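Narrative summary of target 7.
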Amino acid sequence: MARLKLNKLLILIMLTLLMGGCVSEEFDDLKAYISQVKSKPATPIEPMPVIKSYESYSYVADGLRNPFEKLDEPQAIEKMMSVEGPGPDLEREKEELEAYPLDTLRMVGTLSKDNEQWALVKANDGVIHRVQAGNYLGQNFGKIIRIQDQQIDLAEWVATTAGKWREREASLALVE
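Modeled conformation, tokenized:
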């Protein structure tokens, strides 16, 4: 029994010596890097950004139009029918694409056949319409003047606050 204890003690001593021999210097480079980083002087922390104080603004709208109410047209179309001078043909029957605002229509392509050029216009309901020079687009009596590869040129009539009609140019560009 004493011999068994002695064998166990010897095995324990040998294992301890072997374990001590297994310890290597594999972490020396890590320890050196940590000490190198710790030896560098610390960089100063950037100061907090300056927060601008809130400046209140008083909106005084006495006598101005309420921006949340629908804007009335400068002149009703019925009143504009009696105006003399240049203006749109108010007697003609409206075309289908005149029901859409111009900014909701998209030019998606062109077609040519027998020296006739057509443009393809997509309405906001997804339907694609074929138009040519002389057709009307938009809600401002926009008549197609010219169809090019990249755009449709229009002449629109808008009512002024003075109760007259004014012609303006507009275009509908090709959407890629």
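The first strand starts at residue 106 and ends at 113.
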